[in-house]
Amino acid sequence: MNEWVIAALVLIAGGLVPLGVVSCFSDVIEGVVALNLAGVIATLVLALLAEGFHRQPFIDMAVVLAFASVAGSLTFLRFLEREV
What we know:
The protein has about 80 residues and is an all-alpha fold. It has helices at about 5-25, 30-55, 55-80.
């Protein structure tokens, strides 16, 4: 394991796990904010893993995830428009 993989593990444990708890057990608008931030952190984790393992497809997945997380958050807000 190198420093890139360790940084990815720290982001998963310190970032994604608490955001998952917030998105499940909090108010709707706070859950959407946590979902959007989780997309950003997941993109960073994939980029760190790509550098750590020297694998180009992980970078491609990170770029696709960056666009998909924004579109997914906007779609989620659209369906929950009445509750927000």
